[in-house]
Amino acid sequence: MSDQTPGQLFESALQRLDETGDLDDLLARFSDGAELHRPEVDTQEATADAEAFWKAYRAQFDEISTEFTHRSETDQHAALEWQSRGRLAAGRDITYRGVSLLAFDDTGLVTRFATYYDTAAFLEPADVSGRTG
């Protein structure tokens, strides 16, 4: 039996995904049919496919590292603040910050995951040099 809270177990599993690309530990943290939300997808279109959700997340990056900076947690909910740094699959460095909200069932598995961050960090920077064509 682990002495870690469900929020801490989620943090560790996400960091393992970041480091190794292995989904198993993270997927084990989710209940069947868990609801997952991210800002670039319409809020009415939550997915219940945790594997597809996390594969799509990881595929954006060549490398990524997430540091959790604050956690507020009860038996049923956690709010996690974080900062991620790495390199996008397109080759550009990225740093972005956000918050993830988790709801847990009675066994500590995630039943709802919603993450919020500024999606502009993923956009290609505009050329502000004034050059044309």
User: How would you describe the shape?
Assistant: globular
| Number of domains as seen in the coordinates | 1
Helical residues, percent: 10-25%
What structural class do the secondary elements suggest? alpha+beta
Instruction: Count the beta strands.
Output: 5
- Please count the helical segments: 3
Percent strand equals: 35-45%
N to C succession of SSEs = HHEHEEEE
Order of strands in the sheet with most strands: 1-5-4-3-2
CATH hierarchy, class? Alpha Beta
Q: Mind summarizing the main beta sheet?
A: 5 strands, mixed
CATH fold field value: Nuclear Transport Factor 2, Chain: A
Tell me the distance between the termini.
Answer: 62 Å
Q: How confident overall, as mean pLDDT?
A: 90
CATH architecture: Roll
What does this structure look like?
It is built from 3 helices and 5 strands; from the N terminus they run ααβαββββ. By secondary structure, it is of the alpha+beta class. It has a single domain (6-120), classed as Nuclear Transport Factor 2, Chain: A (Roll). It has a 5-stranded mixed β-sheet, with helices on one face. The model has no long low-confidence stretch (mean pLDDT 90).
List the defining traits of the structure above:
alpha+beta; five-stranded mixed beta sheet; 3 helices; 40% strand; globular
